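[Discussion] Sanity-checking designs against the backbone

I'm trying to build intuition for which residues belong where. Below is a structure token string of 162 positions. I'd appreciate it if someone posts a full sequence so I can compare it with mine line by line.
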């Protein structure tokens, strides 16, 4: 049991550390209307400049692309009643199982970290099974959007002098 607790703690710490690193690297959301979607910031790139624009803009606007993807998925879930009911039930189960004190599974108490790991795995598998078309289509859409946006948006201010 101690081995399982230590492994669960290690996995939980690794995920938390990766999340904190990601947050630090993308902690700045670029202004939406003044910068990200400003029509005056778009221009047709020269052939040699296109790859550099894609590389720099994808890094610079990463958090904006992620928020756009999450917004697309949320709107898709809300607009389709079956997905809305399923994910509402999942939210209820998360709330219910995370609020139970002293939850036991096979006669052993389940720690909060293991509970989150089990619920997260179940949620991921259910989401992939029930909404894989929605997830794949939205990922494809955001990929195409991000590539077009990154190609035609001018270079970020910090890289134009290089």
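Best answer:
Here's mine. Compare freely.
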């Amino acid at each position: 049991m101690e081995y399982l607790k230590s492994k669960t703690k290690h996995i939980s710490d690794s995920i938390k550390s990766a999340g904190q690193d990601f947050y630090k690297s993308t902690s700045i959301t670029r202004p939406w209307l003044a910068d990200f979607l400003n029509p005056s910031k778009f221009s047709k790139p020269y052939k040699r400049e296109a790859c550099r624009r894609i590389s720099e803009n994808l890094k610079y606007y990463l958090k904006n692309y992620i928020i756009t993807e999450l917004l697309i998925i949320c709107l898709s879930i809300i607009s389709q009643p079956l997905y809305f009911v399923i994910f509402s039930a999942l939210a209820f189960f998360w709330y219910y199982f995370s609020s139970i004190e002293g939850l036991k599974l096979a006669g052993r108490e389940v720690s909060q970290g293991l509970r989150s790991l089990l619920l997260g795995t179940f949620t991921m598998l259910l989401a992939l099974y029930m909404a894989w078309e929605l997830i794949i289509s939205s990922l494809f859409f955001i990929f195409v959007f991000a590539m077009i946006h990154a190609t035609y948006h001018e270079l970020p201010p910090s890289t134009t002098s290089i």
